[in-house]
Write a structure and sequence with these properties.
Layout (H helix, E strand, L loop, with lengths): L1 E4 L7 H14 L5 E4 L6 H9 L3 E3 L2 H7 L12 E4 L6 H9 L3 E4 L3 H15 L3 E5 L5 H7 L6 E4 L2 H6 L8 E5 L5 H13 L4 E3 L5 H14 L4 E5 L5 H13 L3 E4 L15 E6 L5 H14 L1
Parallel strand pairs: 1-12, 2-3, 2-4, 4-5, 6-7, 6-8, 8-9, 10-11, 10-12
Helix pairs in contact: 5-6, 9-10
Amino acid sequence: MEIRLVAGAGFCFGVKRAVDTVYEQIQTGKTIYTYGSIVNNEVVVKELTEQGVHVIESREELERLSDSKNPGDIAAGTIIIRAHGVPREVQQQMERKGWEIIDATCPFVKRIHRAVEKKSGEGEHILVVGSPEHPEVQGTVGWCNGPVEVLETVEEAEKYMPPEGKKLTVVAQTTFNYNKFQHIVEILKKKGYNVSIVNTICKATEDRQRETQEVAANADAMIVIGGKHSSNAAKLYEICREVCDNTYFIQTLDDLHLELPKSARLVGITAGASTPNKLIEEVQNYVRINF
């Protein structure tokens, strides 16, 4: 039986950069915080927490921690902005409170922040295609200087009507499903709106999704490895399920309960952008030894 790993599975450039940044700061011996999980992978976050990294989950918590005069509060230290980025107001809050700020926002996400800040400042209406609950999307919305809306599904695109007379700038969450984004874009174009499309889906994401689909289309089973809150891993699972019924979504090897028919000839493995390589290797070795 062949085991085929999707090329490019695992840490993308932005995730590796962010995680490496945290490890570099740990070596300084300073008190290290991240605003939100540095990446959406529970294994990575757990390893960093065990090395003393604190995760700040909200602006309220950030406010408390910034004021060491309050009983029970922890004094401010070095704070690292996660790979997904943060809204402008959150970054300004950090600056006001005197934190040492290290910005590990993915450069491709930063590009979106600059684009929406500029276009909204020029009076354009911003439409973000992505999940409204995702931290990257929330960060992008927070850099707009005017009206902004988030749209996630084809059905929402079909019903969508922008403000009359407004030019519309459309950007995408970097990890959004590429094919779905193209479908949504076509719907918006057919409506005849004055629309400017900025394809901000990360090239690594696009390539991973395409290669995952190619492997899954020929596989007897697909294993998708990723964090339970990982948007890009969830989209890989969605892509695999469309063409391969035997698709498994796991966070760690303990979650894998693989059942294969004797006739199985190909098992494909793919992984989200924040999945550590050692975890991918563990899954590969397990399948190789046991099947």
